[in-house]
Amino acid sequence: MQDSFKSFIDSSKSILILLPANPKFDEVAAGLSFYLGFKGQKEITVVSHSDMIVAFNRLVGVNKIAREFGNKNLTIRFVGYDAEGIEKVSYDIDGGEFRLKIVPKDGVASPQENQIQMSYAGVAADTIFLIGGEKEEDFPAIASDELKGAKILHLGITALQSAPGRIISLARPTSSISELVATLIKESGVSLSSDLATNLLMGIEEGTKNFTKQEVTADTFALVAELMRSGGSRLPQEAAPVQPQNVFGQAGGGTRPPKSWLEPKIFKGTSVS
Fold first, then answer.
1. pTM score of the predicted model
2. Scanning 19, 96, 149, 161, which has its CA 20 to 30 A from the CA of 233?
3. Residues 6 or more apart whose Cβ sits within 8 Å of residue 136
């Protein structure tokens, strides 16, 4: 298929995965699973401009989610160092290693390690995948001039509301975005590692509200079984705290029973003549 998910992956040199603003658990799980599935094959980055909440910490690789997508141009700054003290800057390549040399003027100290700051800017990705969301405005980063020229594709369970022609839709009506990503990864021939399968399992479970959504099908359960056979783990969910019950079945310390109820009872029988 000319415009299949696999064909876009195969033709890409560098991939940027963008999560929507304030992403849901299912969207984060799907994005991370996408990243884990292809990180050894492609230059790939997953980015969220929103903070990751505590609930996402149980996903494998959540620490790999970047806040900014600049990864192309490296900038080195000397903070708190007078640039007038530099005589010249040169570089050479020795044994395949790049070396930058800063030569200070006579009587001037060289920049110290704690004065060196490095940062990145620009985007090297030629293909961008948008994960989930409902409308184009959920991904404000794609308005950046730095992303011009890159192919933009959307993975979701419904089509993204966007201007026609700019975003290529790979949306499919499935139970969850994690189920969609799992299906696409399988179609691409990627082996399902235990970490990848675990993320997909948790994403499907959260995205389907514990398999109660109407969109859950037999194919969903077949996929879940395959993920579990691949080493995926279903992490137990936290149970709600149980409040102590009193003798009336009420939570907390309800009305105390009458004192007479707590006193020893003496039973008197009827004599039989």
1. 0.70
2. 19
3. 142, 160, 161, 162, 163, 167
